[in-house]
Design goal:
18% helix; 3 helices; alpha+beta
C-alpha cells in the first residue's frame, strides 16, 4: 500500500492511498492474452507511476487522461519483446475509482 500526500493549488494538503499490486493486477487483466505472451517480466515487476496535473508540462502524452479534470492518475508499464517496434504496454488507471482510463498508443 502506498500513501501519497501532496498539496493542491490552494495549498491544502490532500492524500490518497493505492495498492501497487492491485494497480498492476487491474492493468494486467485489461490486456489481451496475445499481449500477455509478449511481456518480458512478471506482473509483480511492472513499473507503477503516479502523475498529477503539474506533470503535464514535462510529459506531452499524459494530456489525455487529465481531460476529465482528474487530480491524478496511475500508469502501469509492461516491458515487452516488441518494445523496439511498438513500445511498451502502458495502461492508465484512476486510483480512486480503479477504472482503466486509457492506454498509451503503440506504434
Amino acid at each position: 500500500m502506498i500513501l501519497v500526500i501532496g498539496c493542491n493549488e490552494s495549498g491544502s494538503e490532500k492524500s490518497f492511498n493505492f495498492d501497487i499490486m492491485e494497480m498492476r493486477r487491474i492493468a494486467w487483466n485489461s490486456i489481451s492474452e496475445t499481449q500477455k505472451q509478449t511481456v518480458l517480466t512478471s506482473v509483480d515487476l511492472a513499473e507503477v507511476l503516479m502523475y498529477r496535473p503539474e506533470d503535464r508540462q514535462n510529459i506531452v502524452w499524459i494530456d489525455e487522461p487529465f481531460k476529465n479534470k482528474r487530480d491524478e492518475f496511475i500508469s502501469v508499464t509492461f516491458k515487452t519483446k516488441d518494445d523496439g517496434r511498438l513500445g511498451p504496454i502502458i495502461i492508465f488507471i484512476d486510483p480512486k475509482t480503479k477504472e482503466i482510463i486509457g492506454r498509451q498508443l503503440r506504434f
